[in-house]
Amino acid sequence: MQNGIDKLVDGYGIHVYPNGDPKRPVSARIASLDEDMFSARRQGRKPCWVTEWGFGNPNESCPAVDGSRVKVIQDIRSAFQGFAN
User: Fold this and answer.
1) Which of 7, 38, 51, 62 sits at 20 to 30 Å (Cα–Cα) from 83?
2) Domain boundaries defined on the chain
3) Tens digits of residue pLDDT in 7-23
4) Can you tell me the distance from the alpha carbon of 74 to that of 26, in angstroms, rounded to the nearest whole number?
């Protein structure tokens, strides 16, 4: 935006790869998204969409052990809900 792209685009697609710590509270996730991703949106006049998001999986076992990632995904979806509303 500081280089003038706002004049050339209709909106912005944001890619988010948040912290994957399952112990991180939803409130901290909301604050981080607001500060890191969505604060730039408030500076412009264009809409934005989260077009990609995800977490790494350090566990390479087969079959996958996804218990902690399921919690993290549920938490980040809860954090996104406030922004979507």
Assistant:
1) 7
2) 5-84
3) 888 888 888 888 888 89
4) 9
